[in-house]
Write the structure tokens for this entry.
Amino acid sequence: MDSGPLDLNLLVARDGEQALDFIRGRGEFANAKRPDLIVLDLNLPRMDGSEVLRFVRASEELQNVPVVILTSSDSQRDRDSARTLGADWYLTKPSDLDAFLSLGALLKGYLAVGRHA
């Protein structure tokens, strides 16, 4: 079932510190709109995704923003930790290109449901 087009602005952060600058609205992101969805890798350089997730869940303004973990780790320990920290969804990056590209449709559906719930 296709939820139709969504008007999205996508920002890809190069590391955890830049992700946190965007989320906080600091520096070059001072006028950035609050995110509707955060997709985090646990293995970010400079500051890992768990630290970013911890900040998001501690922030009164951001605590209700859905956070999806998209990572190469299939470890149960990482899954449990992400859930404990407040991740809404945990996805393991597929190694197959077609499966990876289908993640876009999954995230689109997740975001569309959240906007209309």
